[in-house]
Write a structure and sequence with these properties.
alpha/beta; Rossmann fold; 13 helices
Length: about 325
């Protein structure tokens, strides 16, 4: 049986001239700006134009483009190889779809049609579900399929915050960094969200907390000093906290070494390579930190690829598992 795996990620500009259109695509997404189209379009244009100069400086730090497509393709190739080794009954091909830059869903759908799979499996590269990330990508794919009258069996793997191999991958990477160091603060940093999104029932924060709880439990280190915080706040709205910046400043002033784990990112991109590695490191050193250590995103970590492979093969058991959602939720409304 031929199966197509659609790996969703955010995407990033491939050159500096494309920073502004990339930002427009991001803010024009109704999952980001929940406004009628006639208001959302000009506002997205305005925000992207104003933010482009700042964002260009960030991408200049990365050599003029985002590495996320290259890294996601590496994950895609590793997963496809693993699936075809692990499951001899089926044939798998992985496709990458970016939400805010190329390759977009419309183009990739044509590639999927050419492959002619008997089943399509949607797999976001966001371990924890949010309507603004996984939900937006899944909905776009479904809408593009409807628009093009493409009908085939489709399964959705919405999230995997506590999946065994996902957790093991993080543990292995953390242990490599904390070996033989003392007096450190282990900071799990996730991308933040406006507080209003959580109050509306988005399970993201709850799932991030569950990821961290599971990792801490499995690490089983006595008196481990750790905290979960949130980064990348923009705009005037109140965001979930505590903020990663505040946690770094506080612990740097206390003389703690900083060990930072990107818990909600599985691919390196501007928010890890610039925000965490450059901006937050400078912040830590400015406030007296003597050792700033960053744990890498999982990337093609063998346990993470095993995690994705296991999710695909065992998808029926995990799609609607109750442990993926807060007690008051059963399934995100946007799926």
């Amino acid at each position: 049986m031929k199966k197509a795996i659609i790996l969703f990620n955010l995407g990033g500009p491939d050159k500096l001239d494309n920073v502004e259109p990339f930002l427009f695509n991001l803010f024009y997404d109704p999952a980001i700006l929940n406004l009628p189209n006639f208001l959302r379009y000009p506002l997205a244009k305005l925000i992207s134009k104003r933010r482009a100069p700042i964002a260009k400086k960030i991408y200049e730090e990365l050599g003029g483009s985002s590495p996320i497509l290259k890294l996601t393709l590496e994950q895609s190739n590793a997963l496809e190889k693993k699936l075809n080794q692990q499951d001899e009954k089926n044939s798998y091909k992985c496709f990458v779809v970016m939400r805010c830059w190329h390759p977009r869903a419309e183009k990739v759908l044509n590639d999927v049609k050419s492959y002619s799979p008997e089943e399509v499996i949607l797999l976001p590269l966001y371990p924890q579900y949010s309507a603004a990330t996984s939900g937006s990508s899944i909905n776009e794919w479904i809408n593009v399929c409807k628009k093009n009258n493409y009908k085939t069996k489709t399964s959705i793997i919405c999230c995997y915050p506590t999946e065994e191999f996902f957790v093991k991958g993080h543990i292995d990477e953390i242990l490599k960094k904390i070996d033989k160091i003392e007096n450190f603060k282990l900071i799990f940093s996730a991308h933040g969200l406006p507080e209003k999104n959580i109050k509306k029932g988005d399970p993201y924060q709850w799932q991030v907390e569950k990821s961290v709880e599971k990792i801490i439990s499995k690490l089983n280190i006595k008196n481990l000093d750790w905290v979960l915080s949130y980064q990348s706040r923009v705009g005037p709205l109140k965001w979930i906290g505590p903020s990663t910046e505040d946690v770094i400043i506080e612990n740097s002033k206390l003389g703690k070494k900083i060990v930072l784990v990107p818990i909600a990112f599985v691919s390196e991109h501007s928010e890890t390579l610039v925000e965490l590695d450059i901006e937050y490191k400078e912040l830590a050193e400015k406030n007296g930190c003597i050792d700033y250590i960053r744990v890498p995103a999982l990337g093609t970590n063998k346990d993470f690829i095993n995690s994705l492979s296991s999710l695909v093969i065992k998808k029926e058991e995990r799609m609607f598992s109750e442990d993926l959602y807060p007690p008051q939720n059963t399934m995100p409304d946007s799926i």
